[in-house]
Amino acid sequence: MSITEIRVPEMGDFKDVAVIEVHIKPGDDVAVEQTLIVLESDKASIDVPAPFAGRIASVELAVGQRVSKGALIATVEAAAAPGETRPAAKPEVPATDATPTPAATPSPAPGAAPDCDVLVIGGGPGGYSAAFRAADLGQRVILVEREPTLGGVCLNVGCIPSKALLHVAAIKEEAERLADHGVAFDTPTLDLDKLRNFKAGVVSKLTDGLKGMARLRKVEVVRGTATFADANAVDVALSDGASRRIVFAKAIVAAGSVPVRLPFLPDDPRIVDSTGALELPFIPERMLVIGGGIIGLEMATVYSALGARVDVVEQLDRLLPDVDRDVVEIWRKRNAHRFDAMLLGARVESVVAETDGLAVTTSGEGAGVRRYDLILQAAGRRPAAEALQLAAAGVTLDARGFIEVDAQMRTRNQNVFAVGDVTGNPMLAHKAVHQGHVAAEAATGLKSFMDAKIVPSVAYTDPEIAWVGVTEDAAKAAGRAIEVGKFPWAASGRAIANGADYGLTKLVFDKETHRIIGGAIVGPSAGDMVGEICLAIEMGADAVDIGKTIHPHPTLGETIGMAAEVAEGVCTDLPPMRKRG
């Protein structure tokens, strides 16, 4: 009979948290995963389960104590008592110099019982949201993720690290602008190692939290790469070199996307995609961004703030082509200092890697040869669906390589669902999360559908641009009669006080129904404000609904109400307007 200690495990972002419940006492028999204690952080209550079965020998914690990772909870007699069959603690395996190769898991026999109710492929926002929702609905869930941590591109090499760097860039530039208001700072110094560590710490905090939430929900996380073997099974090439076949009742594909690789670019460490750019290999003197979309402009903002001179080459005749022209033009003027050249209607014809730089030949506007120290290729992303061998499961792709799904996120195989970037544009984390919830609920038998009218977008540049729904140009191109309300922030007391009087809030209404169908904002916190426009569109609000909703003053958010008043011709914060008939 052996005595084994049970200690507080690593369960995400918490330390020095309170013990609020103790569910054991000496002499109790406990089963695997039975709750021993409950901890309470400022974010959630956390159950700490038994890692193995046994009989409690001593309890070392009491309600009210504060604990962190590694604190002793209890000691347990891990051997079975007479007359009982109780799993013993796993014996310690002595370390050896040689690491044996695990054997492959045998394939199940035809018609074998599934290993899980729901299998999720991909641990990004769509995948982990689907896995956690399915687990909350009582399903046995296995989540397959090829990377070492959960979170996908968004948390690890996308949304979150880029926003950490953009935050630093915004603070630096705002501090510099304060000199015009009488507060000047010394010239800032850049410590790249500290900046990289800050970014990594932000990412780690969130991915550790996901790890803890997966454990609390009893979601089994399998590290490896999955391919479909047939309509009800996948083969996983495990990260440790072994393989495993998993039979599922339902599956949700959330494999995400990968950057488009421009075939004419040479293989050179000075040519990076968004992942490479976020590693901050160095701060170049001159940088080229290929692509004038969100990713390209966000990274241009970061590198410019850190000291690089930046050029942008965009094949189309405008930046952010799906965004309202008015707000993009304001952004361009505000960012003129950032770019030596902004080449629109242009393209990169060739890149020659030389010892002292990268020689780039462009055609179209500003055609010529320029030299750069770093090139970011940000020409878009493509779905990561091809390697999954979806045909084996009876799942079809459209002409652009996206998985075809219905409103329940169900594919041609009624037991296989797909969410996120693999299902089509826009490739946005918040869309994937909602799709993940729908897929998990539908897989469980609930009548859940993806019926959102709109999906908002944000460019977290300086200033931010946020937009949603129908633009003025798109409405006119479709022959749709509209009314537009534009409120310039030059008439906003808060914007003037904040040095943001260049901003604009613009709303688009259907002329017949007066209901809002779109909107765009440029200025600080635009991304935080656009949610109100989203809600107004989803609820079918008209200009009167929005304008007569009392907004707090003085705020940037009240410009949404004022833009609606402009559309109605009743705004008193601007010069007299033409009365409506």
Describe this structure in words.
The protein is 25% helix and 28% strand. It has 581 residues and is α/β, with parallel strands linked by helices. The protein folds into four domains: 3-77, Beta Barrel (OB fold (Dihydrolipoamide Acetyltransferase, E2P)); 113-260 and 380-455, 3-Layer(bba) Sandwich (FAD/NAD(P)-binding domain); 271-379, FAD/NAD(P)-binding domain (3-Layer(bba) Sandwich); 463-568, FAD/NAD-linked reductase, C-terminal dimerisation domain (Enolase-like, domain 1), CATH 3.30.390. Strands 9-10-11-12-13 form a five-stranded mixed beta barrel. A hairpin with a 2-residue loop joins strand 19 and strand 20 (357-364). Helix 1 (125-136) runs parallel beside helix 8, helix 3 packs across helix 4 and helix 3 crosses helix 6. The termini are far apart.
Short structural summary:
The chain is an alpha/beta fold and 581 residues long.
* Overall number of structural domains: 4
Low-confidence stretches: 80-107
Strand content: 25-35%
**Overall 3D geometry?**
globular
Instruction: Enumerate the strands of the largest sheet in spatial order, edge to edge or round the barrel.
Output: 9-10-11-12-13
Question: What's the CATH superfamily of the largest domain, by name?
Answer: FAD/NAD(P)-binding domain
Q: Which oligomeric state applies?
A: single chain
| Number of DSSP helical runs | 13
The value of Rg in angstroms is: 28 Å
**How widely separated are the two ends?**
90 Å
Protein structure class: alpha/beta
The CATH architecture classification of the largest domain is: 3-Layer(bba) Sandwich
Mind summarizing the main beta sheet? 5 strands, mixed, barrel
